[in-house]
Amino acid sequence: MTIFLENARIIDPAAGEERQGNLVLDGGRIAAIGDMAAPKGARVVDCGGKCLAPGIVDLGVKVGEPGERHKESFRSAALAAAAGGVTTLITRPDTAPAIDSPETLEFVMRRAAEAGPVRIRHMAALTKGREGREMVEIGFLMDAGAVAFSDCDNVVANTKVMSRCLTYARSLGALVIGHPQDPGLSAGAAVTSGKFASLRGLPGVSPMAERMGFDRDMALVEMTGARYHADQITCARTLPALERAKANGFDVSAGVSIHHVTLNEFDVGDYRTFFKLSPPLRPEDDRKAVAEALASGLIDILCSMHTPQDEESKRLPFEEAAAGAVALETFLPAAMRLYHDGTMTLPQLFRAMSLNPAKRLGLDGGRMEEGAPADLVLFDPDAPFVLDRFTMLHSKSKNTPFDGTRMEGKVLATFVGGEQVFAADARKE
């Protein structure tokens, strides 16, 4: 069916601009964009002057299949993504067992294909079992459909093993996604070290652990010439090293989670475990520096780092509780905080949330131009609401740090391949 989206505030991250206009969706792609009339027989959707942007490409989503389906299934994750304006999920391999063989990858690809209604692509582990000892069959996994390779927060501590992985990945053009942390310093840490950690009596880790881990990986990237993406840069001290790596011509990119640019260490408050993340939340100075780096483009990608945990793993003393938070449905409204406080424009945000992750992974998306996939999100950046995690979230797990928080920014409709896969109840056509 041809769909005509009229009276839209079009957010174009590639051009870095906003403009009023209409779109024609046909054959799963954007057929026309501009100031034109509706084609005969098209379904007309009045956007009401609200924002229309490329669908979010979320790099680094945890889904519990296989092994932890009770925390999040492909079906529940896909429904949550559609409700949050996320049209493409890039899932992580930190499952049980890890996605470290073509057979396991083919299993999750079949499960994802059955889930609908959004696009789902998959990373594979970098080492077998994510144990940091033996490299996976990178070539076979790429042939099976893996878009990147990562051991996630199980840092490959053995430098020789990591160098071999990067060398082999370089020969195949594979993207390696690292978690820049020194594993020795980070072991057992629950928060960022400092006065706040001392007052709360919690084990902390210095921000230098991130800098040291990143420096190690950059030395190996310089040695091997591999394609590398740092999944989360959260500290101001790491930013000069990232800038130098890019200036030296390394094929390096970096990301940050939405929680690390909208929350800080004080949000942990009185041991609130929904705010326990990996890496831990940082001081406000770090949060501001990282947000500014995201706005400038030094940090390329903003992601949800969606990590579902059940109530039993969160309702524990802070030090013992599992790390991570769900974020597929709170990603866009949380990102609107950066828009409303003037840190970033909407085109800058969607450059980081849609265009850049699609380009880094070689995917055909994140663009607002004729011929681009009709993966779109219609949203109101100013609509206020108070989040109730039990009644408003589609995710099986409800471990969001934004429960009870007043937020701004509502997804009104989501389109994938020209098909509407989500519509807010209050939206009128």
UniProtKB/TrEMBL annotation:
Domain Dihydroorotase catalytic: 49-233
Gene Ontology molecular functions: dihydroorotase activity
Hydrolase listed as a keyword: yes
Domain Amidohydrolase: 341-422
Gene3D superfamilies for the chain: Metal-dependent hydrolases, Urease, subunit C, domain 1
Superkingdom of source: Bacteria
Enzyme type, top EC level: hydrolase
Keyword annotations: Hydrolase, Pyrimidine biosynthesis, Zinc
Protein name: Dihydroorotase
Listed Pfam families: Amidohydro_3, DHOase
Organism: Acidimangrovimonas pyrenivorans
EC numbers, comma separated: 3.5.2.3
